[in-house]
Write a structure and sequence with these properties.
The structure is a homodimer of 196-residue chains. The first copy, chain A, has 196 residues and is mainly alpha-helical. The first copy, chain A, has a single domain, classed as Orthogonal Bundle (Tetracycline Repressor, domain 2). The first copy, chain A, is 63% helix and 0% strand. Chain A is built from 9 helices and no strands. The N terminus and C terminus of chain A are likely disordered. At the A-B interface, helix 7, helix 8 and helix 9 of A face helix 7 and helix 8 of B. The structure holds a DNA duplex (30 and 30 nucleotides).
DNA sequence: GATTAAAGTGAACGCCGTAAACATAGAGGT
DNA sequence: ACCTCTATGTTTACGGCGTTCACTTTAATC
């Protein structure tokens, strides 16, 4: 029962299935891989999968979890690269949207399970990073949570709408939408603009 | 070939299928209805569906379109009830999120097609209302479009995250997130809060 | 009334997720 | 060394799905 990357004929079918799943989600745009297809790719009968996952939904959840971890890592790296602070905060959001566009099928899978994808295990690096960063920016705990959730909703909405083709998946547009300074125009500044 | 609501044995199977589809999407939480199931409900063989829709995707697209129209009507009514202006604008967003929570399966279907659900036909009342309202609020066309898209992304993100159980589908939380005044704290006001 | 095109039917195909019964191999105890 | 047991895999089978094809029926048209 080694978890090492040995041959899997006896070894870790589970990891092989997840790897095949992630690979399938990258290619062949939009199509979620079937359980049988993954088994085929890995060279195993379809029912063998059930020795490692109770059902397809569990397999999907594991894939979603893997995707979530990947996203968390990319965001952490991006935030560090940007040097934290509000600069890093924005960069985290940018990375979120970019991730969705770079891995559309995986991203959809991640957020299309009916329920939060687990709750146990390691508790979602991406979300931890988000709350930590916004707490660092705001101070007031309630305000920090609100900012965190609003930011999440914003980038998630941008990502989803772009994935669904409702708004163009344009880099410039991402930048424009990520800049939330104007959103407050109706509530914190004058309602007239800088144009004459 | 009457479009009137007559018997459908010969008559409008198409509308009957759409009605059955919308009904199915309301009950039995989360599950998207199958083509065969809808045919069964309507009392017709599965293949009869193909006389009215080229494939299942087209049926789904039609259902999505119907959902979009419904959303648009509810938003328009809500905006009018609130008396337009920035009050009506916010109300439109609130209605968007409420609609998603009230019709989760339909809402998911609406935004889960790969592509924008058509583009032809009547051009999406919801979106028209959104841009019109934000143009009324901002004046500057570019700024208006940005505000429109940001607002859309925000409410869409809130809706999606709540549907997926990532954040609690809580009425109070909706209100808190809809109030975007604080979002600009980092760019338009002081970074200190009103608490001592 | 005969013709014709639209609308509905039934059987069949290959895919899917899943269940049940069976096979095999490697670990552990004796 | 042997036997056993458990983890892991296989085969076969079931019902549901979307879709195709060849067919019948029905209502509208000349």
């Amino acid at each position: 029962m080694s978890t090492s990357p040995e041959a899997y004929h006896h070894g870790n079918l589970r990891d092989a299935l997840l790897a095949a799943g992630l690979a399938a989600l990258e290619g062949a745009e939009g199509k979620a891989p079937s359980l049988r297809e993954l088994a085929r790719v890995v060279g195993v009968s379809a029912t063998a999968v059930y020795r490692h996952f109770p059902d397809k939904q569990a397999l999907d959840a594991a894939l979603a979890r893997a995707g979530l971890d990947l996203l968390g890592k990319e965001q952490a790296a991006a935030a560090e690269r940007a040097g934290g602070g509000s600069q890093g905060f924005t960069e985290t959001g940018r990375t979120y949207v970019r991730f969705a566009l770079a891995h559309p099928a995986l991203f959809r899978l991640m957020f299309t399970q009916g329920h939060p994808v687990d709750g146990s295990a390691t508790p979602d690096e991406a979300y931890a990073l988000l709350t930590a960063n916004s707490r660092a920016l705001v101070g007031d705990p309630d305000g920090a949570e609100t900012l965190a959730l609003q930011s999440w909703a914003m980038v998630h909405g941008i990502a989803m709408l772009m994935l669904d083709g409702r708004i163009p998946a344009d880099d410039a547009l991402i930048e424009r939408l990520l800049d939330t300074g104007n959103l407050s125009a109706q509530s914190c500044g004058s309602s007239s603009e800088e144009s004459p």
